[in-house]
Design a protein that fits this description.
The chain is an alpha/beta fold. Helix content is 37%, strand content 25%. It is built from ten helices and eleven strands. The chain has a five-stranded mixed beta sheet. The chain has a four-stranded mixed beta sheet with strand order 8-10-11-9, with helices on both faces. Strands 6-7 form a two-stranded antiparallel ribbon. Helix 2 packs antiparallel against helix 3, helix 6 runs parallel beside helix 9 and helix 7 packs across helix 8. The longest helix is centred in the middle third of the chain and has 17 residues. The N and C termini lie far apart (47 Å). The N terminus is likely disordered.
Length: 275
Amino acid sequence: MPVRTLLLALLLANSHGLAATTSQDSVAAVNAVRARGCGSRPAGADAVRPDGRLDRVAAELADGGELKDALRSAGYRATQAAVLEVSGIPGSLERSLADRGCKDVTDRVYRDLGVARRDGVTWLVLAAPLEAPAAGQAASVSARVLALVNEARAEKRRCGLKRYLAVPPLAASLALQAAASAHAEDMARRGVMGHAGGDGSTAAERATRAGYAWRTVGENVAMGQSTPEQAVAEWLDSARHCANIMDADFTEMGVAVASNANGVYWAQVFGAPRP
């Protein structure tokens, strides 16, 4: 099944749990929480789009089906999906989602939403479609990631429990770009996301192979994001990945994306050359 993380049947039922009366109400509630933010999750996530295929997925789940089978039957290729089951007395679905489903509802990777109702229960399916950047866009994708990373570095921010001051921008490195490209393509070829290469290599070893004489090297990887904006947003949401982005020791960066039939793989390599 082409999903990066599968979060099944998060039950939001309690004395304050609420069920939407219409599909439009559910879409509006999800997008209100995404726009406003909740808990420690920031405001401003893009609105999700109603998708008829995911409506069919939600209906099949409500009838006892399995997510993997429902997605395949509906013809929806997902890199990540979350299923929320909401029941309870009539009232505010929005509040229930913010209280109990905050992490999933505000996840910026999700772009589409399906809704089904059965016996007073609302089933919501949030999904990220498998849409790899076109092969001919490698240069523009790399430039866009670098720009987003430098925008992030230009402001102080918290990565997990650690606070970082603004740091100087990174420069593009052809050698680090080559190392990132080799690892992204290796992950896509194997269908495995991770820092270890298929030959057991580390990020530092791959940088050396690419001709980068490094003083320090770091790496972020990701799977399932369709755009530079999604990839960088997810890295910034993760304490360890964010820390790499904000590390003042790094002065250069290379990034690449590759895909196979079931996934999109990103590799971002940071470094500072030896004097």
